[in-house]
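Sample 1 of the test manifest.
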Amino acid sequence: MENIALTEAVYYILLSLYKPLHGYGIMQNVDQLSNGRVKLAAGTLYGAISTLLEKGWIKALPSEENSRKKEYQITQQGREAVDREIIRLKELVANGEMVTGGGGK
Amino acid sequence: MRFSAHRLFFAWDFEEEEQWLNEMASKGMNLQGVGFCKYVFEEGTPGEYQYHIEWLKNRPSHPESISYIQFLEEADVEHIGSFKKWVYLRKKRSDGVFDLYSDLDTRIDHFRRAVRLSLVLLPLILVYMGYLVYMSIVLKGFWLSAIPYYAMFIVLLGCIGFGLVKSYRAYRRLKKERIMRE
């Protein structure tokens, strides 16, 4: 399995897509999840979505008749990537706390 | 009331151009349409809109660009016009923050493309200047009528040379920053 560090944007987009959401919904969800710290910009989001679709980590849902807004959802592959990322993040935090004695309070 | 303004911005001045459009908008002059060095404004409520411009990879009529612009429109962004691969976008401030890029990579890419553009233009102008010099030597009295062209090319050369240095510096600075952060 490839061992990569996800960008903050990609990580939060993937988390947002555990339930189906359209583009603007992802932006709002990421804003809420991070208490307003991470603001996804439209162009960045678009680029990330295209790449994630290509990789097969998310899929576009068949759009409803009366809605032009495309919805997306995470795939099994995407979930696995999130799981790997959580392990990586835990390692970062554990090492950080070990060295600094658990600062950051 | 509508009125138009004429101003020339080079590709590497996109940040200044964007700033100018937002200053106009904060005075209630909202950009409505664009053309070559031409900007059409309409008077409205000061500070109603925030503007952004973007250098697309493809022409605005390309399917890739169409799908991108459609995506932006879903986020309440309005596409008011294009010139070549440049698109002019705005969003009502009351509809939330309008940022196109939260990552550094796109700004790096804009400057990289500006460097490439000036590197293509520079030799073209040098070749044309060489031709003028050659003609001035061969043809008697030619140099006198060519003075305006000489002046024009020297100004152009200066602008492009300046743009090259500016874009390259911005590119290097952002590249370094990219090592530190996302």
